[in-house]
Amino acid sequence: MTAPTPKQMHLAAHFPGVNNTTVWADPRSRSQIDFSSFEHLARTAERGRFDFFFLAEGLRLREHNGRIHDLDVVGRPESLTVLSALAAVTERLGLAATVNTTFNEPYELARRLATLDHLSDGRAAWNVVTSSDAFTGENFRRGGYLDRADLPQVLGSARTGGTPYTRAAEFVATARELWDTWTPDGTPRPFRHQGQHFTIEGEFTVPRSPQGHPVVIQAGDSPEGREFAASAADVIFTRHGTLEAGRTFYTDVKARLAKYGRQPDDLKIMPGVTFVLGDSDAEAQESAAEIRRRQISPQNAILALEQVWGRDLSSYDPDGPLPEIDPDPDSGLVQGRVRNGDPLAVAARWRALSEAKRLSIRQTVIEATGRQSFIGSPETVASELIEFVSTDAADGFILVPHLTPSGLDDFVDRVVPLLQERGAFRSEYTGSTLRSHLGLVDPVGKD
């Protein structure tokens, strides 16, 4: 009997930029500013027939205990400018930019995204994020920030029973209104939008782009973030550490779609994951352990601890136990970085982990901050990826390499051919737009 064809997976490449994922001490690491680095990773992803290339965003250099964070000293370029340049050296690869709704305006950003969609012949995507950070807001004319009630994590919709639009929800809806003012046959129509956050009217200057609407991505695991993704996103960028957690998340998010008149395939769930390859599983495990040690140096372990505790812990020994003092939730020690969850709750989890396994500060940080990883031989990694997708734990993955920009090379050369041989991933692009790669319905029903 012929084995059934596996469910098709989607793949994207995340350019690491400034973070603790990249092993900067590795001699193969290069600049995250030089265009050649972006081009290398993008060309590799396209050679692997990936769906899209994904850029994060940083709007201010982060500070730690009053000093510029070490990883930020070389800065971060503006995403849409980089992707516009990449449009000229790629042909089919989707181009996804993280752009903040708090410090932009719908008309201006809708024009930039529509322009990228034209320049790339229909490959643009927008990862929607916001900020409640007054520190970042000081870089902008308003100089302020939004209350957490207006963040996308609490996004509402008129269809959810009267919950008011937040700025981010209204921002996305307004951008779509602007894109729709040009008909598919090229006829412009005036627009007028009056809402809680935006009152604008006029004529949109960019004709309807190849995709109609650029693909919308949203990152968020909270219940409110899941609701926003179900109501308005095409892709949700998430993280979950186990196969079972992935299945639970997948089931929950897909079940939310029906009340918005959407089908399960209208939203793709793509967790961000790392990978480490070796000629054998044992070799890969050994390499992965060394990579984690190099990512979390003794100094970085203390910095990571301070980000949770909100206290100056420079006197602590990275090879010693966790602090007995509790975190300071209202500390201003770290500026420009979003805390992931309640510091007290995070500290409690770290303490439980440390006590159960008798881990030092550095060992605890290494284990507690690791992103979901696929570690093993190419055959093992390919099989695990297929299992995640075929058992509805994900629709695909956003790969975060530990080297910039060559970290994707081995995956494309050694894992992608196995996925293709097993029928789990495309051998060639069958369409020209990002929507076609992702199997998403065109917003105006065009072929």
Automatic annotation (TrEMBL):
Q: Answer yes or no on keyword Flavoprotein.
A: yes
Main enzyme class: oxidoreductase
Report the EC number(s), separated by commas if there are several.
1.14.-.-
Which Gene3D superfamilies does the protein's record reference? Luciferase-like domain
- What keywords were assigned to this record? Flavoprotein, FMN, Monooxygenase, Oxidoreductase
InterPro entries, per database record: Diverse_substr_monoxygenases, Luciferase-like_dom, Luciferase-like_sf, NTA_MOA
Q: Which Gene Ontology MF annotations are present?
A: monooxygenase activity
Family according to the record: Belongs to the NtaA/SnaA/DszA monooxygenase family.
| UniProt name for this protein | NtaA/DmoA family FMN-dependent monooxygenase
